[in-house]
Design a protein that fits this description.
205 residues, Rossmann fold, 7-stranded mixed β-sheet, 9 helices, 34% helix, binds S-adenosylmethionine
Length: 205
């Protein structure tokens, strides 16, 4: 089993789930302002992937049905505990690389900081295309590898640390992964430098 395989990443997030919210607090003071901007696109039958401890969930209106999945039962249980009374949210333990959903089910797929962690991101993105309706839309808030001369290699150098400790990469080329998965209509909304952005993917099929 490789050190970035699915079972390993699941174990790391189960471990990380115990202190995820506390550890991420400094980053979250910055990230939190982008979450409402992501969730406001939710319409129709919504899937949130890699929901984690549920940081986006407070922004969904009560009349939107959300299926929230995560690979890690530890992360998922934190989210469930935070929102015991949100009747419009269904939590499921599921791997985005191979879900049990039918084809063409979701109108909107939302994820924040997920494809930094999915062991095989192109496989996960292909699965999104399969389960998203042809007219559906995918919105991904992601931190990615910088293409800047000095910062990019620094992120490469330090990448093994967060992967081994927590389960996420800081040097994913998510733009390339999205293209490799066959998506063509991709808009990038830049939030910070060339590192923090939202991908808006349309014309899914
Ligand atoms: C960095 S956390 C982000 C959590 C949350 N979306 C947020 O914004 O705080 C990445 C999440 O993706 C989940 N994840 C990683 N690989 C996954 C996979 N293959 N399928 C589903 N979830 C996955 C992890 O368990 C973790 O909860």
């Amino acid at each position: 089993m490789s050190w970035t395989g699915t079972e390993i990443i699941k174990k790391r997030y189960n471990r990380y789930s115990k202190f995820y919210d506390i550890f991420e607090l400094p980053m979250e003071t910055f990230f939190s302002k982008f979450r409402p901007d992501l969730v406001r696109y939710a319409e129709g039958n919504v899937l949130e992937i890699g929901v984690g401890t549920g940081k986006n969930l407070e922004y969904y209106p009560d009349d939107i049905q959300v299926t929230a999945i995560d690979l890690s039962p530890g992360m998922l249980s934190k989210a469930k505990k935070k929102f015991p009374n949100k009747k419009n949210i269904t939590f499921l333990e599921m791997d985005i690389q191979s879900t049990t959903f039918e084809d063409n089910v979701f109108d909107t797929i939302i994820g924040s900081f997920v494809f930094c962690s999915v062991p095989d991101p192109v496989k996960g993105l292909n699965e999104l295309r399969r389960i998203c309706k042809p007219g559906g839309k995918i919105y991904l808030l992601e931190h990615v590898r910088s293409n800047k001369k000095i910062i990019g290699p620094i992120l490469d150098l330090f990448n093994p640390i967060p992967v081994k400790l927590f389960g996420f990469n800081i040097n994913r080329n998510t733009t390339n992964n999205i293209k490799e998965a066959g998506f063509v209509n991709i808009v990038e909304k830049i939030y910070w430098s060339d590192i923090l952005k939202m991908y808006i993917i349309t014309n899914i099929k």
